[in-house]
Amino acid sequence: MYHHVGDWGPARADWAPWVVKPADFNAQLDWLVEHGYHTINLAQLTAHREQGLALPDKPIVLTFDDGWGEDTAIAQQYLAPRKMHGVFFVFTGAVGGSPYLAWPEVKALEQQGHEIQSHTVSHPDLRQLTAAQLDHELQSSKQKLEQELGHTVDAFAYPFGLQDERVVRAIREAGYHLAVLAEGGNSRMASDPLLLPRWKMEYGEGVALFAQRITAH
Ligand SMILES: [Zn+2]
Fold first, then answer.
1. Whole-angstrom Cα distance, residue 70 to residue 54?
2. Cα-to-centroid distance, 27 and ligand 1 (Å)
3. How much is the pTM?
4. From the CA of 33, how far away is ligand 1's center (Å)?
5. CA of 32 to the centre of ligand 1 (A)
């Protein structure tokens, strides 16, 4: 799980968990290439989990949360040269406003082979919402993305990774097939598809720790 790529982590201390150093990010992506990993998207993961469709060797999902405007540059500068594809979770209420992506940019990412998935409408703590608010966050974001992109959108990232049983039930009822947390490690076939863990790479965390996490059993 990534959010930002930049050298400004130390300048804004509370952002350090959400920013990865460009040098570290390059080293992490190079490590994946050197060790034979292949980026896949969540549609592929769903097809594998539900229908047994084959995945490439050493599949990995690179996710980028929130739909920040810099995502276009991340895709072009870091992913494209390595023929890697990312999954970008956008919250639809932010699209079109600064400093977030605009709809043409969201669509361009998809046309470049990346995947767009849902991250609610307004990025709330879903546990605090009424039933009606919860339905709105889950369903309107899905519908808006489907309308803009012209196909089904059925994977989800919990804002802040926060959820409870009621939220997970609502995710299932809204028609999502996969949902990802903000921490917890490597995803397994035995993992609950609506509670898939991720690794969060933070500022200054180097390639050794990255490799240790990816290869953890
Ligand atoms: Zn987020």
1. 32
2. 24
3. 0.97
4. 27
5. 24
Distance CA 133, CA 139 (A): 10
Assign domain 7-214 to a CATH class. Answer: alpha beta
| Long-range contact pairs involving 169-174 (C-beta distance under 8 Å, separation at least 24) | 170/126, 170/131, 170/134, 170/135, 170/138, 171/138, 174/135, 174/138, 174/139, 174/142
76: left (phi over 0), alpha (psi -120 to 50) or beta: alpha
Q: Tell me, in angstroms, the distance from the centre of ligand 1 to residue 125's CA.
A: 10
CA of 151 to the centre of ligand 1 (A): 23
Domain ranges of the chain: 7-214
Q: How far apart are CA 136 and CA 120, in angstroms?
A: 9
Helix axes 165-173, 131-149, angle to 10 degrees: 40
Instruction: Report the separation in Å between the CA atom of 119 and the middle of ligand 1, taken as the mean of its atom positions.
Output: 7
Q: How confident is the model at residue 169 (pLDDT cuts 50, 70, 90)?
A: very high
- What pLDDT, in 10s, does the model give residues 178-203? 999 999 999 999 999 999 999 999 99
